[in-house]
Amino acid sequence: MGISERGMEIKRFAEKTPKSLDFYKEASKVMPGGSTANIKFYAPYPIIMEKGKGSHLYDLDGNEYIDYLLSYGALILGHGHPRVLQAVQEQLYESGTYLFGTPHRLEVEMGKKIQQLYPSIELLRYTNSGTEATLLAIRLACAFTGKNKIAKFEGHYHGGYDQVLVSVNPSVVEAGHPQHPNSIAESKGMDEYHEEHTIILPFNDLDATSEILRKRKDEVAAVIVEPIQSGFIPATQSFMDGLREVTDELGILLIFDEVKTCFRLGLGGAQEYYNIKPDLSTLGKAVGGGYPIGITGGKKEIMDVSIPKAASDVFDNSQSKISSAKDVLFHSGTYNGHPSILAAGLATIDVLEEEIDRINGIAGQLKKGISKLFLQRGIAVQTLGLGSMFNLIFTEKDQILNYRDLQHADYSLRKEFDFQLLNEGIYTKPLNRYSISSAHGQKEVDRTLEAYDKVLGSL
After folding, report:
1. Which residues are the active-site residues?
2. Which of 307, 337, 367 is the last residue of a domain?
3. Nearest to 337 by CA among 119, 51, 101, 24
4. 132 and 234, same structural domain?
5. Domain of life here (predicted)?
6. In which band, very low, low, confident or very high, does the pLDDT at 98 lie, cut at 50, 70 and 90?
7. How are beta strands 233-234 and 228-229 bridged, if at all?
């Protein structure tokens, strides 16, 4: 696409979304950069949405979009699914409250359902987000093993806190050797401590990973991994088998971060797909049906580290002279196990037990149609991913296995392509992966492929 065409697309975007621009300017007086989360921003300004229904979003100017962002994969049933709405309404009506602040029935009901779907989860704790879930999993691992360092993989994201916000998207110049990656902080305000205490591993490279872990086995409490990097780059089976074997051998816990992959490959997630039992698992996004939730679970002996004790309560002032809170792993949260959210999660699982195969089938159909359109025009692209999530990688590279392989992709072309799709009513944040919901069907696939065909004609 030439400069003139690019300028025309930006002009068209501005003409279609003037209310979004006005709102964004007003929002900038309330929030830094006009956004409450960095991830929600994109240039020249983000489209401001007014409402959602099924597989569609509607912006302030009344433009309609087929939604493939789906709140970064959380809305696996689409917007406003009637059974989720009904479940939440029934919980509110029957309980008479939207928050107990005490134990309640749905905590156990949801927990048993998760245990059935994820046999590796013998006990669990609820959190309010996937980020909180990984934070708890790491604390459990360090408490259980008595070691205070963790290892994560280059290019993997586990939340926005200092301990794991390293080497998520480092520059290749800073990142170091592909088989011995450097630990690079990804935010201002981070202490160098975390670059020293978070060890970076090369994804899908078992030999290099094993070498690093053997050298650091006395320091590393756990390896945390996205089995599907960023939700679309799968680990090879041999890599996952080898990672399970070497962590077992070295006495290092293995944490599966399934915040993205929960219900996206199947109801049992990536651990069912790979037939591997991690020591700890973290779930999020789709498990709440669009409501904020996280789950941390795993082996009983590890989870038992968090059993509350009366004489070891950080909040119990009556025990201040005799308590030893540091002898118990602390985990708490006012909204943990929120009844309305657990009702939504249970309803989501009920629907997915009926619909998940069809959702994955629609995703496969869309991927196949996209690949065919690009092939017809001789444009190299990969529709990479499993289950109901995938991404478009503009590259001539035959195989994408990790973060370094992604650096060969043409992100400039992809960004322009996504921007044109926005103007055609196909929504995902530029450069982001696609997620499919139960609300997507043949009509959405056909409309999307028509838009792709039109945009490809201008490339």
Report:
1. 157, 257, 285
2. 337
3. 101
4. yes
5. Bacteria
6. very high
7. antiparallel
Q: Give the length of the chain.
A: 459
List the beta bridge partners of residue 427.
67
Partners of residue 59 on adjacent β-strands: 49
The total number of structural domains in the chain stands at 2
% pLDDT > 90, the chain? 91
Q: Which of 337, 363, 387 is the last residue of a domain?
A: 337
Q: Tokens 């043409």, residue?
A: 410
pLDDT of 328 reads: 83
Closest CA to 81 of 116, 104, 53: 53
Task: Tell me how far apart the alpha carbons of residues 160 and 145 are, in angstroms, rounded to a whole number.
Answer: 24
Rounded to an integer, the average pLDDT of 373-398 is 96
pTM, full prediction:
0.95
State the DSSP string of 272-341: HHHT---SEEEEEGGGGTTS--EEEEE-HHHHGGG---GGG-TT-GGGTTT--GGGS-----TTTT-HHH
- Is 132 found in the same domain as 75? no
Q: Is the pLDDT of residue 258 over 70?
A: yes
- For all residues of the chain together, what is the average pLDDT? 94
Q: Bridge partners of 65?
A: 57
pLDDT > 80? residue 4? no
Res 5: pLDDT: 64
- Res 327: pLDDT: 77
Give 100-106's long-range contacts (Cβ < 8 A, gap of 24+). 100/339, 101/334, 103/337, 104/337, 104/339, 106/337, 106/339, 106/342, 106/343, 106/346
Neighbours of 325 (CB within 10 A): 16
